[in-house]
Amino acid sequence: MVPSLRRDTSRAMAPFLVLGMASLLAFACVLAGRSSGNLSATPTRVVSPNFSVVKGGAGRLGGVGYRPQSSLLVERNTQGKFRSLGKRGGMSVVRATNEIPANDPADQDKSLLPQDVQFGVPEIREKFEKVLMKAQDDICAAIEELDGEAKFEQDRWLKTTGGGGRSRVLMEGKVFEKAGINLSVLKGALPKEFVEKRGEVKGYEDGEKVPYIGMGLSAVLHPRNPFAPTMHFNYRLFQTESGVWWFGGGTDITPSYIDKDDMSHFHGIHKEVCDKHDPNFYARFKKWADEYFVIQHRKETRGLGGIFSDDMNDRDPKELLSFYTDAVNSVIPAYIPIVKKHMNDDFTPQQKEWQGIRRGRYVEFNLLYDRGTIFGLKQALNTERILMSLPLLARWEYDFQVEEGSPEADILDAFQNPREWVPASA
Q1: Which residue of the set 222, 232, 270, 342 is catalytic?
Q2: What are the two backbone dihedrals, phi and then psi, of residue 298, each rounded to the nearest 5 degrees?
Q3: What's this model's pTM, rounded to 2 decimal places?
Q4: How far is CA 46 from the centre of its chain?
Q5: What secondary structure does DSSP assign to 328-369, as a single string?
Q6: What pLDDT shows up at residue 59?
Q7: Mean pLDDT in the chain?
Q8: Is 281 in a helix, a strand, or coil?
């Protein structure tokens, strides 16, 4: 029993995901100006009515998925095999009307870039697409190797209007509860007012839309063990017909408990990457992350930061291409050693509950404040992919408090008062 969670631990666990998630999703869709689509579900069956302290084993409870609601464990109908997503859990994948499946293995590595785009710098977008494709392959391979059991399922798709993507999801693994890595290449039009925040837009009147081509690789990785942190990254490029272009993105980490050595390692890797390209990048992008990943209604950050940037077009695009290439390629060395270190740590049900509370906070930020989520909903993109970043399980408890002086209180203070994890001269 861990006394640092100040509440009655003998009572049944609070309602888990459905009500809080539904309310937040409804609000996010109001922000986006559209109603939510149908969300696919995976059938479950009760396995065992009891659970106890977990000893290592990467957080597996009896070899099945962890679901504390009403003290029940459930087993999800997933086989852990790498296969194309056509049907999952007995339900078809929901697709947009202008989207077609393209899961022929022979097309796996083909470019998703539309060939009829007459604006932007083709060399930059072609090179960055290759960088993102390789990064997706490398990161998926590293995750699968570390997990040892589960495999990513892939849904490769094309837009009839141009572009497409490779969406990969891993669930119910030995180490990872859920991992999603999504590559998208999009062609569309953005409001002039949106584009002119990034640069001067010529030849368009107010209210008109500016054609664009954009691409990005985004991922969220949720390990089972509460001592292994969640990690998110997103790296992207936009080019518009008006001549305005920009890179953006970053990588951030969300632990449930502080390990100073882990944070020094994670931030240290990113500082090395930043310093290689500009000695001011790390301080600038670390501060940007601390200010961006804020759950405003909670007055706390989602996690313990990292680097974040957006609308970057202040230097030669080749220089930024080089930086963002190094940044996305730093994901594996910055994150994988931390999960490997903690994936077999012992933990208690109460520590797992705290992880659920923090994942609830993760959901709140993603649905209410995350630019990518809001952008995707406003652009009427595939809802399943937009919400791929959400954890499989999360938790909300009324007026939840932590005990003063506890490990939970320590990290909550770090969420409320961002800290420095590497010396400025390191």
Answers
A1: 232
A2: -100, -15
A3: 0.80
A4: 29
A5: HTTHHHHHHHHHHHHTT--B-HHHHHHHHHHHHHHHHHHHHT
A6: 38
A7: 82
A8: helix
